[in-house]
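Chain A, query sequence.
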Amino acid sequence: MPGKRFLIIGAGGLVGRHLLDAVAGRDVIATYRRDPPSGGLALDITDADAARRLVVESGADVVMLAAADAWVERCERDRPCRQAQGDGAPDAAAAACDDRDLSAQVRHA
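Chain A, predicted structure.
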């Protein structure tokens, strides 16, 4: 996908770092929570408004959401955590893609 701008939300995590490797040398905006990749932007994915704003303002052609809480058991027991990370950010990112007329395909892993 030459000439495309990529936004990787959660680029500081295990999956996100692999995605960064896959698009190395291209125009990439990378976000993180704890472990910043080189040139990364801090983003709390539980803040749906911030996630939506970033997608809209980034000008990205491709948006990849690799962010998640590594403490899976907490999110399984804690409904607000699950909603904020499992529903809130993906829904906000997909809505922002719709706002920009990007074809959004949201996949949950």
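Residues 5-99 form a domain with the Rossmann fold fold (CATH 3.40.50.720). The chain has one domain: 5-99.
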